[in-house]
Amino acid sequence: MQGSSTLIAAKVAADMRAEGIDVIDLSVGEPDFDTPEFIKQYAWEALEKGLTKYTPSAGMREFQESITSFYARRFGASFSPTEVAAACGGKQALFNAACSLLDPGDDVMIPKPYWVTFPAIATFCNAKCVFIETEATNFILTADQVAAAITPQTKLLIINSPNNPTGRVIPPDEMQRIVGICAEHGVYVLTDECYLFFAYPPAEAFTSASLPPELRQYVCVAGSFSKTYAMTGWRIGYTIANETWAQAMVKLQTHSATHPTSFVQYACAKAMQDADATISAVNSMTSEYERRKNWLIPALNGVNGLKCAMPEGAFYAFVDVREMLGDRFATSADIADLLLREANIVVTDGAGFGADGYIRFSYATSMENLERAVDKMKAIFSVTA
Question: For tag attachment on the chain, is the N or C end more exposed, with fewer CB atoms within 10 Å?
Answer without folding.
Answer: C
